[in-house]
Amino acid sequence: xxxxxxxxxxxxxxxxxxxxxxxxxxxxxxxxxxxxxxxxxxxxxxxxxxxxxxxxxxxxxxxxxxxxxxxxxxxxxxxxxxxxxxxxxxxxxxxxxxxxxxxxxxxxxxxxxxxxxxxxxxxxxxxxxxxxxxxxxxxxxxxxxxxxxxxxxxxxxxxxxxxxxxxxxxxxxxxxxxxxxxxxxxxxxxxxxxxxxxxxxxxxxxxxxxxxxxxxxxxxxxxxxxxxxxxxxxxxxxxxxxxxxxxxxxxxxxxxxxxxxxxxxxxxxxxxxxxxxxxxxxxxxxxxxxxxxxxxxxxxxxxxxxxxxxxxxx
Amino acid sequence: xxxxxxxxxxxxxxxxxxxxxxxxxxxxxxxxxxxxxxxxxxxxxxxxxxxxxxxxxxxxxxxxxxxxxxxxxxxxxxxxxxxxxxxxxxxxxxxxxxxxxxxxxxxxxxxxxxxxxxxxxxxxxxxxxxxxxxxxxxxxxxxxxxxxxxxxxxxxxxxxxxxxxxxxxxxxxxxxxxxxxxxxxxxxxxxxxxxxxxxxxxxxxxxxxxxxxxxxxxxxxxxxxxxxxxxxxxxxxxxxxxxxxxxxxxxxxxxxxxxxxxxxxxxxxxxxxxxxxxxxxxxxxxxxxxxxxxxxxxxxxxxxxxxxxxxxxx
Amino acid sequence: xxxxxxxxxxxxxxxxxxxxxxxxxxxxxxxxxxxxxxxxxxxxxxxxxxxxxxxxxxxxxxxxxxxxxxxxxxxxxxxxxxxxxxxxxxxxxxxxxxxxxxxxxxxxxxxxxxxxxxxxxxxxxxxxxxxxxxxxxxxxxxxxxxxxxxxxxxxxxxxxxxxxxxxxxxxxxxxxxxxxxxxxxxxxxxxxxxxxxxxxxxxxxxxxxxxxxxxxxxxxxxxxxxxxxxxxxxxxxxxxxxxxxxxxxxxxxxxxxxxxxxxxxxxxxxxxxxxxxxxxxxxxxxxxxxxxxxxxxxxxxxxxxxxxxxxxxx
Lengths: 314, 314, 314
Fold this sequence. Notes:
3 copies of one chain form a homotrimer.
Chain A: H1 19-32, E1 49-54, H2 59-71, E2 75-79, H3 87-90, H4 94-101, E3 107-112, H5 117-124, E4 129-134, H6 140-154, E5 161-165, H7 172-181, E6 188-192, H8 201-209, E7 213-216, H9 220-226, E8 229-232, H10 244-251, H11 258-263, E9 269-271, H12 292-312
């Protein structure tokens, strides 16, 4: 990287990254995989303070960020339930909260229940903001770790075939990942989902406009045999309201099990943003092509990379 | 400072500080403003452990203390909801809890829902206790940061004119601040509040006994034009019970807006303990005389100073 | 200790320790009592990360572990309410959660509401697991600190007389302690409890099979005059359901007060796992034979020892 070319100020949405920046982030993430206890790298962020301002609980994401900060020698201020932090409880605006918390810390990792909250925070703050999910909106660090995992597992992002499976209508992760994949060449995407949770037109139109080939399929076995990556997602019960019948029907429709692994190519992998219920059966966990726990671990490296880049620059 | 003259053992209430101690604390707070990452100052409290024992949540105050400790290289044990800590849940006394927690830490920052709890804790503990608010009682570090902010912004505390506005009956902060201001000379205090939340007689009598001039006024514009400091507070809805009508009436009565700023003297400032609702309009935030976010930041320096003084002495 | 003879991999239940291992752990705990701020010992676990995965709150136990880790220079990731951590909330299995969290940390301290959960976690994890209590099952670090306290206070475990008092049916601590005491010679145990919460036959049979003498007694004064250790426990109201009358009767039956201390031998001590209600009266706290707060503090040293042994070996 040359100089400050990619000065990263905030991480707000998957779309903000161009291909060059993505590659640069992935390069730093690779370095982060090599950071060991009691080496200079493990003290990179010594003296820096990260505040995790979580307006809704997400222990997994919070721990991943806090681990990333501490693996680099930084310190953490935790708010697991920031709704009590005046905002909801006493009526303070998000902007006022941010202006207070930025006085106590060097970077804020925020999760919020409202789409657009992270952008509002970034507009107000004079320190970097990382969006750790804002409602139905964005979860950009998940998209980055997904793309990073594909590159680590398959060796490239150009020319890959990806099957997105499960809840494509509401699943924030598959929508964000589609955005990132569109930055690469010759990508082919297959959508495999129950009818009630099909991929929406905005993403389809976007992919088409970016020259990305996509098709819908009802045949998971066929897709599995052709793809480099099968990205399975959980059908979220809370999206179905009182229609439990529709949920139950959707939920059991596309399961990744040993049969699917049997048709999978040797170099291919199965990914999942976790947590999973039974949409991937546990008997395939020991197959080396089951990449989902490695994927979770990659979240640590991506977050280490982002913290380093936002606080110290390139 | 000469030797251990001001040996500070606990921080329990605003009244415990004489003028000389206040000045000494403010001097240390000024030094704390200069502590930078990776300088020796940032390691002053290395190896020390602070426990935040919060029986009611107060994220803002907790984060401020935890940031202060970590900025000085210390470590933190957090209990965001100490009511579960046996006391309420299993019937353990506060004294037993303190005797257990003092075995794990070097200093305890405690917030409690009962007036007098901090003093009871200090009587039991062999390590320093800081009162981070005990019910309707005291919140001494807020009073200290308020007085420190006046000194930083106006340059002195003697001879100042202060307008206390809003909820003067229940507002813990204005009551404590009045106590501290009484230690200085030639102070003049104006009380501006809706009838239902007027300043109570105990404070008025105390000020009179200390030779502090005060008057009540219903004319915020007049007071604003005369004062060095306008200290606005939030009308707390929870104080009005079912009388929402009284709350609504009280709430809208004295708003600090552009009109108030227009009559404010050039050197004057507006303060607020935060969080605010609409008692200060956001359009004045960018005016340099809006001091409330600087005030919040001063809380960090005051708490750093207290932690240093309680753990290392002068 | 010779080489890696006692390679400790996980801490799951009191029964896993033989006498030799117990002695070795107690030896390390003694060293831990001497660790001072800013000495090399205080940096033993620098760079190591401990995750506290608590599926039910236990502030006391959590703080003790977190203090232990930080006193040795390690860092902590905290989850005070891990039930929200997908498992309960979204249906993730404990195994999946463990496989994610082990990616973020070097050791996991887990408290769970289900008996056997810690063993399941240890089977899954490739990093050490410490059981900090799993439902009605085990709480091995409490048993270790209890035995360590007896050795520290009385000077030995062989040949001692111990009175276990209070809730012997449901009290996890007395059951685990009985298991540990059975590893020593010439131990005599007296059970003193209300009828409704008498010691169960499994423990009695186990003690008999191990050659440990025991008897039941209804005379606390007589037992107190004969024993080296009186181990008092709290009668847990939640065990009695709607039979508040039985609870009230059981609760007041055996109180350790000044009368009991009057018949206690000079070298004897009173212990309690805390929290206490009124089963030990506060007026005896100042008697040097009241060992319960020293016992709580010993929990810190035992946990420091275990963390050191699990992460660095002998």
